[in-house]
């Protein structure tokens, strides 16, 4: 059975990420972001959302674990920052229902959601510049980089929250990530 560990970055929806994975039949556990990487046994990791970059614990170390990683909201921003991209303030700060245009139909994480999907996202902060080796996979009128991926390294990130009911195809996104982790 595929095991995916959710790294808790103290976000309000972290428990829903764990539940979404359990509902798909995945062996999952939520662990605090200060857990040493050596204590984590997983086929994949989800870096949850959270309030700010000042409380990301050992997330940089988790990116070196050689397992697929899905970053959600702050998790996306952590991946971008730690690997050489840039993050800055968004033009629209609060949560919003947003139509996201999928730019890469071949992307293992979100390609199946093409041509567009409705999502629930916060844009207080957002990725402004991709890290080297990443592909810009989704955009919206609210945020230029709604998603990015480096499929070769199995690193993926979305600005939106696939775990909440307001996101139309969140379950499909998690199914796609489970598929990546099961290979």
UniProtKB/TrEMBL annotation:
Give one Pfam family.
GATase
Keyword list (alphabetical) reads: ATP-binding, Glutamine amidotransferase, GMP biosynthesis, Ligase, Nucleotide-binding, Purine biosynthesis
Q: Carries keyword Ligase?
A: yes
**Entry-linked PANTHER family:** GMP SYNTHASE [GLUTAMINE-HYDROLYZING], GMP SYNTHASE-RELATED
List, alphabetically, the GO terms of the cellular component aspect: cytosol
Domain Glutamine amidotransferase as annotated: residue spans: 5-178
Catalytic machinery residues: 73 (nucleophile), 161, 163
Listed pathway(s): Purine metabolism; GMP biosynthesis; GMP from XMP (L-Gln route): step 1/1
Q: Which HAMAP family match?
A: GMP_synthase_A
Broad EC category: ligase
CDD domains given in the database record: GATase1_GMP_Synthase
Identification of the protein by name: GMP synthase [glutamine-hydrolyzing] subunit A
Q: Tell me which SUPFAM superfamilies the record gives.
A: Class I glutamine amidotransferase-like (SSF52317)
């Amino acid at each position: 059975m595929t095991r995916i560990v959710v790294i808790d970055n103290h976000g309000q929806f972290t428990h829903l990420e764990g539940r979404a994975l359990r509902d798909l039949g995945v062996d999952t556990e939520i662990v605090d972001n200060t857990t040493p990487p050596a204590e984590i046994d997983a086929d994949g990791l989800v870096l949850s959302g959270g309030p700010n970059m000042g409380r990301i614990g050992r997330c940089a170390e988790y990116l070196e674990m050689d397992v697929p990683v899905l970053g959600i909201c702050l998790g996306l921003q952590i991946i971008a920052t730690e690997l050489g991209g840039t993050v800055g303030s968004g033009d629209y700060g609060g949560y919003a229902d947003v139509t996201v245009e999928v730019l890469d139909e071949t992307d293992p994480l979100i390609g199946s959601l093409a041509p567009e999907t409705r999502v629930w996202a916060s844009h207080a902060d957002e990725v402004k510049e991709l890290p080297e080796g990443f592909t810009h996979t989704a955009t919206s009128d609210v945020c230029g980089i709604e998603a990015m991926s480096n499929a070769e390294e199995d690193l993926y990130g979305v600005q939106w929250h696939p775990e909440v009911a307001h996101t139309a195809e969140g379950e499909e996104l998690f199914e796609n990530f489970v598929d990546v982790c099961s290979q």
